[in-house]
User: Which sequence fits this backbone?
């Protein structure tokens, strides 16, 4: 029996961990599994509903670390997860993505002499102002197994001196989750319930601190999006952090949050959000995961950033970097809308079987590394 322990902490982690957990559950004779939720996303709307929709079991342990600065959050996870790891003594600790919980769990596991497997390794934006980039670099440097989403990530890791034997190109577990739930999301027809015609609206998400915490940058993005809304209606599920920033900057009225052509709504569940993006004419976002999902769906995407850690979505997918200025965003949007929807061109191994490959590799590797 191989004992595994997976650590999750934020919504993107749940979508990446779910297919791995399901793959492990199909082999109870071979794997024992413990799920630890750090509570980095700690309220029901940002966490609990995702477990239900994704069919994930309730966490075996919930650390309830809550919010705070990067230092506070990372320190709380390290302190809380250490006794859990010591008691469980897993053969492998699985960490996913690039949030603070990922970094804290990986560091703690390694200091306890445990082996670490990083799912979604090798992604690089080359932007050290992004906390996630620092997390990625640190976790990859100490991980024993590095599971990558595309060959560009493999190249990044090899250039950083990682032994090629530790790198495993398995595909994208986010797309495993998307493909599993796509039919259910389409049947939900969330756009229709909102009075939106398929292919005749845009979706906007905005949450990165680099965009949200700068009033000047945020104002420029809002100006661009408002201008784009003159050509196509935009629906905007507003992250709580973003709503506070918009209200503080006077860019949104808490009593009347809908601007001309832009409809602000509360955060959506996974299926509603997937249904919305599946039928969008274009998606505006600063989310890394949405760059991948829109590529798999064949939906044009404008990324509200100057860089991306997922260049495969630009090279092979439907993504364009719009930057954070009004002119850049509008130019990218005009180009994307003119091109229209494209056939879904999923990169190699984005086929819904990434989790199966991960479990197969761990099955072969863990006993040999013991």
Assistant:
């Amino acid at each position: 029996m191989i004992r595994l322990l997976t650590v999750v902490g934020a919504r993107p982690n749940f979508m990446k961990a779910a297919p791995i957990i399901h793959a492990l559950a199909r082999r109870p004779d071979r794997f024992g599994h413990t799920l630890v939720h750090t509570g980095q996303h700690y309220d029901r709307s940002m966490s609990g509903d995702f477990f239900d929709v994704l069919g994930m079991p309730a966490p075996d342990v919930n650390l309830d670390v809550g919010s705070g600065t990067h230092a506070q959050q990372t320190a709380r996870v390290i302190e809380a997860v250490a006794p859990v790891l010591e008691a469980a003594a897993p053969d492998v600790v699985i960490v996913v993505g690039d949030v603070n919980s990922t970094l804290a769990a990986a560091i703690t596991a390694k200091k306890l002499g445990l082996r670490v497997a990083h799912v979604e390794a090798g992604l690089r934006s080359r932007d050290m102002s992004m906390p996630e980039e620092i997390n990625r670099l640190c976790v990859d440097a100490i991980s024993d197994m590095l599971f990558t989403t595309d060959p560009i990530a493999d190249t990044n890791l090899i250039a950083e001196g990682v032994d090629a034997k530790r790198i495993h190109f398995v595909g994208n577990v986010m797309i495993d989750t998307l493909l599993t739930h796509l039919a259910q999301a389409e049947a939900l027809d969330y756009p229709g319930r909102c009075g939106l015609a398929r292919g005749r609206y845009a979706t906007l998400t905005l949450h990165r601190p680099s965009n949200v915490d700068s009033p000047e940058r945020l104002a420029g993005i809002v100006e661009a999006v408002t201008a784009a809304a003159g050509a196509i209606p935009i629906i905007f599920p507003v992250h709580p952090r973003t709503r506070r920033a918009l209200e503080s900057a006077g860019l949104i009225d808490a009593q009347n949050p809908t601007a001309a052509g832009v409809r602000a709504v509360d955060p959506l569940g996974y299926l509603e959000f997937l249904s919305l993006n599946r039928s969008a004419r274009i998606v505006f976002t600063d989310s890394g995961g949405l760059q991948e999902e829109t590529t798999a769906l064949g939906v044009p995407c404008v990324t509200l950033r100057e860089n991306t850690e997922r260049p495969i979505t630009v090279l092979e997918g439907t993504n364009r970097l719009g930057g954070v200025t009004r002119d850049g965003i509008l130019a990218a949007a005009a180009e994307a809308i003119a091109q229209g929807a494209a056939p879904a061109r999923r990169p190699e191994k984005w086929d819904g079987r990434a989790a199966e490959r991960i479990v197969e590799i761990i099955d072969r590797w863990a006993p040999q590394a013991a």
The chain has a mean pLDDT of 92. The first strand starts at residue 2 and ends at 8. Residues 93 and 116 are 5 Å apart (CA to CA). Residues 70-88 form the longest helix (19 residues).
